[in-house]
Write a structure and sequence with these properties.
Chain lengths: 106, 338
């Protein structure tokens, strides 16, 4: 288990234990955290699980695969710290990760 | 008014196979889809990516799967209504009357919603004032390019649509192409062409910029774009085009009184009927305990929903279970020649 903290756009904070091996997207869906739609189910074929990663965590994340940046072009208000949460696999290194969920996904 | 037994909403793999299942049990159907072609997510999101989990098909692309399904239902002469989105639903005695965005009307005995995650619509700018200009000087698709002649156009996006239009319109208009990063998702040859045009002053390329605001009276006059580092540029612009791909939205189905939770419609697993009698839901849009969002699940759901439609379409007849290998009736419907 790793602790992941999700900050929603209306300033609510949800800290949950997410099983290692699951993605940050799945952690949100399983815990009913609002604001992550994940329309394509984790296939990197949409951009509706978009999150902003807290700056100090950016270097610790797995690097973007081909295609993630392309999908982020389609996200709602992408920034430099944008990631698709379906591509972030939870591990010991990510224990304590904090992400902000955008005000909307579409 | 189109009178048919069943209206299928959504021409993705699930909807297409349901049409087949309706056809072999002797029911007629027509299909509505908001996209301009059949195939749904398979054709819109991953036409060239391989799929490995279709039973008995070791590997095929989204496009191949769609084409195979279309050829499988070809003998049934199913009528498609593309570029149409269902809008209104009305119960008239024991039939349903449905009307689409383009005014096409249907009179049907049952409805099968195979709408995936919703209908595809263009993803829009997040800047609030954009709505005011949408349709007059701000567009997400191009219907008549002649209006852009000798005008200044600001195009946003980095995919093929943005690049292709920037290249094409650079012959007759002054083009600003604005994208949020240095890399592009469009074809490499288009990226090279855009860079060349930029180099020769035929187009102005701004990377690491995003739209900050638009202003103007009735029409857009200027746009402000903001660099990653915070710098803001103001550029004159008669038109703004945004190409950010498509997003899926449930739309009017939300108002049909269906039991909807998290963008999915609750169904029973006996015949995939919703809480509203005569309205069925199959594929990614339906939910039930154990639901898997796989194409193969959609096929199974479509087969059962088709049989569920039978009692509404032919209330006085009894449906007999038959195999296509031996059923003369099914083979006739499929046009099998002996």
């Amino acid at each position: 288990m790793a602790k992941i903290t999700y900050h929603t756009h209306n300033n609510k904070t949800h800290t949950v234990d997410v099983q290692k091996g699951l993605t940050v997207m799945e952690g949100a869906i399983q815990n009913d955290i609002p604001g992550i739609d994940a329309d394509c189910g984790g296939g990197m074929a949409c951009a509706t699980c978009h999150v902003y990663v807290k700056e100090e965590w950016l270097d610790k994340l797995p690097t973007k695969e081909d295609g993630e940046e392309d999908m982020l072009d389609m996200a709602f208000e992408p920034k430099n710290n944008s990631r698709l949460s379906c591509q972030l696999i939870v591990s010991d290194e990510l224990d304590g990760l904090e992400v902000n969920i955008p005000s909307k996904q579409g | 008014m189109n009178k048919t037994d069943v209206l299928i909403i959504g021409a993705g793999p699930t909807g297409l196979f349901c049409a087949h299942q309706l056809g072999i049990i002797g029911l007629s159907c027509e299909i509505v889809d908001n996209l301009d072609k059949a195939g749904g997510q398979c054709i819109e999101l991953y036409p060239d990516k391989p799929i490995y989990d279709i039973p008995a098909v070791p590997e095929c692309t989204g496009k191949e799967l769609t084409n195979n399904l279309l050829s499988q239902i070809k003998p049934l002469n199913v009528k498609f209504h593309l570029n149409e989105r269902v809008e209104e639903l009305k119960k008239v005695e024991d039939r349903w009357h449905v009307k689409t965005s383009g005014g096409v009307e249907f009179d049907v005995a049952a409805i099968v919603i195979a709408g995936g995650v919703g209908s595809f619509e263009p993803r829009k700018f997040s800047v609030k004032e954009c709505e005011k200009f949408e349709g007059s000087s701000l567009f997400y698709s191009i219907k008549d390019k002649s209006i852009f002649k000798d005008k200044t156009i600001s195009i946003f996006g980095g995919g093929d649509s943005a690049l292709d239009w920037a290249i094409e319109l650079s012959n007759m208009s002054k083009i600003n192409l604005i994208h949020r990063r240095d890399g592009f998702s469009g074809a490499e040859s288009s990226v090279q062409k855009v860079k060349e045009l930029n180099h020769h002053g035929k187009l102005n390329l701004f990377t690491k910029y995003q739209l900050d605001s638009v202003s103007g009276n009735k029409q857009i006059e200027t746009v402000k774009i903001k660099h990653d580092e915070g710098e803001i540029k103001e550029i004159k612009s008669d038109y703004v085009l945004g190409f950010f791909g498509l997003i899926m939205q449930l739309g009017p189905i939300l108002d049909w009184g269906l039991n909807i939770d998290k963008k999915t419609v609750h169904v029973n697993t006996e015949n995939f009927e919703t809480n509203v009698s005569g309205i069925f839901a199959i594929g990614d849009i339906c939910s039930y305990p154990g639901k898997l969002k796989l194409i193969l699940s959609g096929f199974h759901e479509g087969a059962l929903a088709a049989r569920g439609c039978f009692k509404y379409a032919k209330p006085d007849e009894k449906l007999r279970f038959e195999f296509t290998t031996t059923s003369k009736a099914a083979q006739e419907r499929l046009g099998v020649k002996k």
